[in-house]
Write a structure and sequence with these properties.
The protein has a five-stranded antiparallel β-sheet. A three-stranded antiparallel β-sheet has the order 8-9-10. A two-stranded antiparallel sheet has the order 1-2. Helices cover about 20% and strands about 35% of the residues. The protein is globular, with a radius of gyration of 19 Å. The chain is an alpha+beta fold.
């Protein structure tokens, strides 16, 4: 891969052009990385107070009714964003494990298969959640475990 940087005052906004002979997984990952906002904090709310939460401190992002919450060791914070927006924004650190929950992959300590086909996830603060069968393949791929990891 070649990288070329051109600095010129005529550009008002940064432009990125990608030239390739074929679309592949490497290009797809590159484009995802370019789109992802690199931030270490996100806004969470407790009533009218706004807190800047370190993404690394969040264990779960989940929906309950029409509201979205961030779960940390200390508190539960409300988010003003939609779950699908947070899934895109936090995709480098989090993975969807069921219809209403995203988990911080760096906080998973162990996983236990249950008779129902669901997977129980144990986090490093001893809290648990369940990964549904629908999202299990994506979780395993993200963690690099199981067959067909590539």
């Amino acid at each position: 891969m070649q990288i070329k940087l051109i600095i010129d005052e005529k550009y008002v906004e940064t432009e990125i052009h990608i030239h390739a002979n074929a679309y592949n997984g490497e290009l797809e990952q590159l484009m995802k990385n370019l789109k992802t906002t690199s931030t270490d904090v996100i806004d969470g709310y407790i009533q009218q107070d706004i807190y800047m939460l370190k993404i690394a401190d969040i264990y779960f992002v989940y929906s309950e009714g029409a509201k979205i919450y961030f779960q940390t060791d200390e508190h539960e914070y409300e988010s003003k964003r939609k779950l699908y927006e947070l899934e895109e924004l936090l995709e480098t650190d989090f993975v969807r494990v069921n219809k209403s929950t995203l988990v911080n992959v760096s906080k998973i300590v162990s996983m236990k298969m249950e008779r129902t086909g669901m997977m129980q996830l144990v986090m490093d603060n001893d809290t648990t959640t369940h990964a549904s069968r629908m999202y299990l393949k994506g979780l395993k791929k993200r963690l690099g475990i199981g067959r067909n990891v590539r």
